[in-house]
Design goal:
There is one protein chain. By secondary structure, this protein is α/β, with parallel strands linked by helices. It is built from 16 helices and 13 strands. Strands 1-4-5-13 form a four-stranded mixed sheet, with helices on both faces. A four-stranded antiparallel sheet has the order 6-9-11-7, sandwiched between helices. It binds uracil.
């Protein structure tokens, strides 16, 4: 079939055969389809969806577009965690070192910013010298020595996802269950892990704002992973408001360091501990979840998690002095304050609006080839739910010479829900899919 015929077939709502899916994935991975045809197919999949069989085939061929690693002789379990994408969600950078300090091996392959959500790779690259483009030999050496290494999709690992991910980011084709499932699992299958803990986000700042759709996404990921031989559990967590107080690449690394030092915001710390404990349990290091949680808390309290992060930074070419001097992470000193326009209860701060605001400031991309500004973002001074008085500073924007500031400040101002009465509190962890 010609490429336009394949695109038309999906656009008309028909299922694609395994060979047709392979042809599309090869088109991305081997560069035989131009970006405009890949993007058109992504949009057709976005609107028409995929069957379970198509999603499995897409996942399998995206994983097989590069090497699939395996770790038969690692002296511990290879387990990873991934999130479906959030705002201020920096948990991978906290829980990875914590889980590794407990004896889990974490060969983490992450993504860049996607849509309005931040990406682990962009955050790590804000650390001076940190290299997320290791070759496979270095990746393996660091993993074996430290128990953790963190890289991105490469021309060797999940190359089809590298291309499709960057196209989805800038063509408004992110919020699709089959595309998210295949994107995440292609990287995870390529990692050669035994187990995966998924954090599936729901709420205003998530790709699946309604819980029912988030549940569908969680089930799609868990079932597709299991078909590929990966033990997978998911939790559904609330992303109405951003996680933590800091949004933006360097700002989020600062917050990760604060948390690994035993301080920082409770929501991000507790979610990181919860997810790390599930990895420890899944890896069989502590089969009882309470004991696994205790072990993770010990590693946080005794500084082993922080030491592991420092060693990881050094091993991947970064400057570990950022740990003692987080001001080495360049953050713009140009600020703009967002104040409460009325008094009342600050019941919500719409995470989606803040995510887009951060993108306008330069923390995310609007074109595939664009670079991000690591030093811009948003610092929250207040979080829901609390009482505020007209004129209180709710957040400050860190901008670069006013770039994107007008739109960003408008979005941030509109993100605030201030009401007369407090809303009942929403739990962070909503459901578990085991
Ligand atoms: N994370 C990914 O790796 N891919 C997605 O599509 C969403 C989140």
């Amino acid at each position: 079939m010609l490429i336009p015929e394949l695109i038309r077939k999906k656009r008309e709502g028909f299922s694609l055969s395994e060979n047709e899916i392979k042809c599309f994935v090869d088109g991305a991975g081997k560069g035989t389809w131009p970006d405009y045809q890949l993007s058109a197919m992504l949009m057709a999949i976005f609107f028409e969806g995929m069957t379970t069989r198509e999603t499995s085939n897409l996942t399998h061929h995206m994983a097989s577009s590069g090497k699939i690693l395996s770790w038969p002789d690692l002296p511990g379990p290879a387990i990873d965690k991934h999130s479906t994408g959030g705002v201020g969600d920096k948990t991978s950078i906290i829980l990875g070192p914590l889980a590794a300090a407990c004896g889990v091996f974490v060969p983490m392959i992450s993504g860049r910013g996607l849509g309005h959500t931040g990406g682990t790779l962009d955050k790590l690259e804000s650390i001076p010298g940190f290299n997320v483009r290791l070759n496979l030999d270095s990746f393996e050496k660091i993993l074996r020595t430290l128990g953790i290494a963190m890289i991105g999709q490469t021309t060797e690992i999940a190359p089809a996802d590298r291309i499709l991910y960057s196209l989805r980011d800038v063509t408004a084709t992110v919020e699709s269950i089959p595309l998210i499932t295949a994107s995440i699992l292609s990287k995870k299958i390529a990692e050669g892990i035994q187990g995966l803990i998924m954090d599936v986000k729901t709420g205003m700042g998530a790709f699946m704002p309604e819980v029912a759709k988030a549940r569908k996404l969680a089930k799609s990921i868990v079932n597709t992973a299991r078909k590929s031989g990966i033990h997978c559990q998911a939790i559904i967590t609330n992303m109405d408001s951003p996680l933590g107080y800091k949004i933006g690449n360097a700002l989020e690394i600062q917050e990760c360091i604060e948390i690994l030092k035993g301080n920082g915001p409770e929501d991000t710390r507790e979610l990181s501990i919860n997810l790390a404990a599930k990895m420890v349990q899944m890896g069989g290091i502590k089969p009882d979840l309470n004991e696994a949680t205790r072990l993770v808390r010990d590693k946080l309290a005794n500084g082993e998690g922080l030491a592991k992060f420092s060693a990881l930074i050094q091993a991947q070419g970064g400057d570990p002095r950022v740990i003692d001097n987080p001001n080495m992470l360049e953050v713009s000193t140009q600020t703009f304050e967002i104040k409460a326009l009325e008094s009342g209860w600050l019941n919500a701060i719409d995470a989606s609006k803040l995510g887009w605001a951060a993108c306008h400031l330069g923390a995310g991309r609007d074109k595939a080839e664009a670079s991000v500004d690591a030093g811009v973002g948003i610092i929250l001074h207040r979080k829901p739910s609390c009482r505020v008085t007209k004129g209180d500073i709710i957040m400050e924007l860190r901008h670069r010479n006013g770039k994107g500031l007008e739109k960003a400040s408008e979005l941030c101002q509109h993100s605030l829900a201030i009401d007369e009465k407090p809303r009942s509190e929403i739990q962070l962890i909503l459901e578990e899919i085991i």
